[in-house]
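DATA SHEET
Item: assembly model
Revision: 1
Owner: S.N.
Input lines:
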Amino acid sequence: MSEPPLRADARRNRARILAAAVEVFDEHGTSASTEEVARRAGVAVGTVFRHFPTKADLLAAIMKELQGRLAARAETLAAEGDPAALFTFFAEVVERAAGARTVVHLLAADGTDVGVDRQIAGLGEALDALLARAREAGAVRAEVRLDEVIALLTAACHGALAAGWTPDLRHRAVTRLLDALRP
Amino acid sequence: MSEPPLRADARRNRARILAAAVEVFDEHGTSASTEEVARRAGVAVGTVFRHFPTKADLLAAIMKELQGRLAARAETLAAEGDPAALFTFFAEVVERAAGARTVVHLLAADGTDVGVDRQIAGLGEALDALLARAREAGAVRAEVRLDEVIALLTAACHGALAAGWTPDLRHRAVTRLLDALRP
Amino acid sequence: MSEPPLRADARRNRARILAAAVEVFDEHGTSASTEEVARRAGVAVGTVFRHFPTKADLLAAIMKELQGRLAARAETLAAEGDPAALFTFFAEVVERAAGARTVVHLLAADGTDVGVDRQIAGLGEALDALLARAREAGAVRAEVRLDEVIALLTAACHGALAAGWTPDLRHRAVTRLLDALRP
Amino acid sequence: MSEPPLRADARRNRARILAAAVEVFDEHGTSASTEEVARRAGVAVGTVFRHFPTKADLLAAIMKELQGRLAARAETLAAEGDPAALFTFFAEVVERAAGARTVVHLLAADGTDVGVDRQIAGLGEALDALLARAREAGAVRAEVRLDEVIALLTAACHGALAAGWTPDLRHRAVTRLLDALRP
DNA sequence: GATGAATGAGAGTTCATTCAT
DNA sequence: GATGAATGAACTCTCATTCAT
């Protein structure tokens, strides 16, 4: 189960590949070629496939990392105790999605599913904490449920990526969405 | 400038191809093969390419048709004079998107852009009429602008397509979204 | 079940691909690349895959054709009524195998099996007729059974392909083998 | 000219690699990957390549070892003086081949030649002794020559590997073959 | 000497697009 | 106009071999 620690150069390459993949997939979507990822990372294709035996594995790894980062951010916010933290988090995620397809794919792997379903669960827990806090403080309506929050977040991220969403429009749309959650 | 009228069989083929393409792309996404479209339409690939020199052209044609249908529906609703028609339309479109990727692609061609940008304008006009009517009747907040409505609609459609949106969740999410527009 | 008749050029290409494949696989074994087959046939790879969606399909087609030819030859010999026809056929097949790996693969698909099993059955029937005739005439021992004949034939073909089997040696080895079948 | 004696661990590794390679190639054929061999041997690929600079070298080494073992067995049998020892040896080798591709590759490296030709010579000497003994005792026909024996043995081993050779069929086929050598 | 990560040519396969029939 | 066979670039993935650690 536990794998031996990677050699220093291997770990470095793994990281570079992951970083390159995030960039490439953010720019061209997940249909971008593995070869392009390798090129951007400055390694040979074989190296990419050594680290991620399948393109799906690469995608999954990216999503996992992203999910980890988002969940961590959510936890940090939750720890700070601000009842409106849910709104902050929501807005931040959408903002991020605006420039990166990856966030969108994490929230809704439409078709090219890569086992993201389980990862969203991890994020869900973090979100749930934020939601609970907000509910207690009366910052959101009592009947708002977790799946709705995720749904709206997903929707907003997808939308944010759509052509024509200027920063201003994005801001107004998110505001509307968050208003929908308020009492 | 003006092209000669198509022969009867050509016109018939064009329609069949379009219909088949809608089906195929709804089911498998826009990455489905042209050959599959041809097969479903009962014609040979060559015929598809004669009518639509490029896959992108085919996509654009589909979008145009869809836009036409949606705009027509919006106009019909507007003509009926119900102040809440905007909400009806909104819900209907999301419902449709839930089972068909095409609507989503129309509202936000993320990447595989096929000149949809201009088409959305046509739909915008129809939506604008609905919005104006709703505003006059006080059914929506005064400050809600057209681009926000489109943004939310886009977002909702994308979300509706996401894995895990059950009909129930879809209903609740749309309700929330529409609440966000109400005074 | 029945496919439409191929267009003239398609039929021509199919034949050329098959012929090229026989040559290539005879020379370099079944691990030779599909690209090489295409090159030899004077077509593009895509064409090979259009006719034979999988490399295994190509192999199977070759085997089927070969089996057909061998069975036909066996039937011809059987029709002529010579009690020693079994021996003639045996020697001919081995002779052929000496210069072509394909025969060997047909008789014993060792590993890279491509559904040849069923094809050998067809050949088996033809061989059985020859064997029956020989037995009646007392040309082979009474207890010799079909599977043994196939076994020895397979063995001889494999051997004939082995490095170092000169024509002379081949002749003597086959003679010994056939002696083993005689009373 | 003479190489320095290997370090103890190096000698041990060499042996383990060889043993692993025999297993792996017996199971999956010579197209099995070098990495698989290394894994089975419990060493890293680099180590395999240090000992055998090329895959072909590894194959050749295996064959040499096998040839040594078979020759030793033949000599033992020859020393015992049984006139029928040739038959015993023949049957034993075929039996072994039935479960292991390696024997077959030794006797007839069809294509992936790895310099086995010369190795068979060594085995030939041992076989020649058995043949001579059998001839003296009148156990085989006077005109049977060494190359024929090798040819039949090769053939039988190849055949034994072929799909569909049950132990029973194998026994009958070998019996037939040996009968062919008897007066 | 051993390790195992990196390399990169090459394999099988797919698909938008072209063009002879 | 319609057909469907041919094209060939592109894609994912494998593996013998090299070389930094």
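QC remark: Residues 6-7, 9-10, 13, 43-47, 50-51 of chain C lie near DNA strand F (CB under 10 Å from a C1').
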